[in-house]
Prior knowledge:
Elements: H1 16-34, E1 41-49, E2 61-64, E3 70-79, H2 82-85, H3 92-106, H4 115-124, E4 126-132, H5 136-145, E5 149-154, E6 181-183, H6 187-200
Parallel strand pairs: 4-5, 5-6
Antiparallel strand pairs: 1-3, 1-4, 2-3
Amino acid sequence: MEAPAAQGELLREFTKREKDFMLLALDEGRKALKEGEVPVGCVIVHRRRRADAGGGAGEDSRVDTGDDGNDDVVIATGYNKTNERRDATLHAEVVAIGKIMDQLRQSADQDPRPLRTRWTELFAESELFVTCEPCIMCAGALLHAGIGKVYFGCSNERFGGCGSVLRLHDQSFPGLAGYPCVSGLFVEEAIQLLKQFYLDGNPNAPNPKRPLATASSGEEEPSSVQPAPQ
């Protein structure tokens, strides 16, 4: 189920293309859930012209939309790895951005332009689909990366950087232009992933802060929030 678009766009129905990419992000979130991570997942999609012979970066999962002369290419996927890596910064969005930067460095022999030029061009032509509103840290990282557009599912009412707490996507700083943001795509599915995580219990959280859920207590975290990493 998806709610109407919001966060800066007129209310409208989501397209099949938008739904398909958010479904891929939800798949990434399910991977996180299986690994005991906060279940937030994302994909970054490059809008590549069909006449373009290549030169991008990433996993290159191509989808021909057939409607605007573009091929949509998934250039990175990501899900939370804060527990696995013992690194509180490794949210889904940061993981995906890191993959793209690694790939751009490795492809330097194919494109002699400066790294900053190549990443600026690539991110400006790309869109992020993420199951939960980016936190303030991730919203800032996306601003610095120069992402073209962000879609997210449920809101992050405690830490959200795209409308819930701060509106970093609306900010304009020297050399940073901000980015449009659309919310509410498969919001219920995103919330259910988070509910399942807290129903199962977060073994990495301090007991006084987030006790494990039990059948008798029914305790769980608020369903619309991407919690701070543990």
